[in-house]
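Q: My labmate handed me this sequence with no annotations at all. I'd like to see what the chain might look like in three dimensions before we decide whether it's worth expressing. Could you predict it?
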Amino acid sequence: MGNQISFSEIEYQGKRKKTQKEKFLERMRAIIPMDKWCAIIRPYYYENGNGRQPIPLDTMLRMYLVSLWYNLSDEAAEDLIYESMSVRNYVGITGDAPDSTTLCKFRHILENNNLTKVIFDELTKLLETKKVMFKKGTIVDATIIDAPHSTKNKDKKPTPEMSATFKKGPRYGLKAHIGVDRDSGLVHSVAITTAKEQDIANAVKVLHGKEEIVQGDAGYVSIEKRLDICELYQDGTGQTEKLERGHKKKISTFKKRTDVKFVINKKRSQIITKEDKEAEREKSRVRWKVENPFCIVKHIFGFRKTRYRTMAKAAHKLLMLFALANLYHCVQRKITLK
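A: Here is what I predict for the chain of 338 residues:
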């Protein structure tokens, strides 16, 4: 016998106005390739047996996405399903919601099998196939995600894998580096480091090597002179020399391809004349696209501070958040992927 509809559900169905939360969930439901994502996770998910049947995979995946969109803990995600009828309809629950432990175990399946990386890469390929992402140019940037620095814990130490830095005041946490497609503004590469890591030292991690133009802010000044960048864009003239101990060491004789252009903003101390200000303004008219994914992740999804104590868990969450940020960006531009 099916579940009987309640009076609250009848009242909810009869209301005249759609809330912003309902509109958001409907738009994300329409654009998320749920079948493809479930196909990626299904080989690692629980199999049906003779005992208690597992919760449907698509239900758990939607519950996990809700926890990301609203930056909720497992317990808060469970509570939201009970409190919000629009969330219940999106997740597809008519009875009791999956408890927080079930959501935690589902998240561990994604993390232990590195499925967030697979989902992010598959979405990037889909965006390329649909001619939404072109990868002809890349804009690089990084942002700091704060972490708890309290020592009121069992080890009497702050989050062990994070580090301190100084940006408009002392900060403690991790740093998310991204490479954004210059034409579409969509994220194609993500790298996670501690907060004290320099932006320029990790730029090579978010470049794919086929760009015609690379853009960045003043934190990437002289990026074209770095050895790792020269290796990435080399024209085949790299050399090695043999040292006395028999080890090989690459020397900086790599020549970059002439078809790669680096457009980097100057430091404030170097902007003197009116012509300099106008030139920097022209660079920023394109470079602002890299700030849009940060805006979505931090302000719309609310992920300004991580509650995880390890870099690996935070990295998995950020990969999914930037994948969802790409989809949200497509929703804003009214792009369909199905």
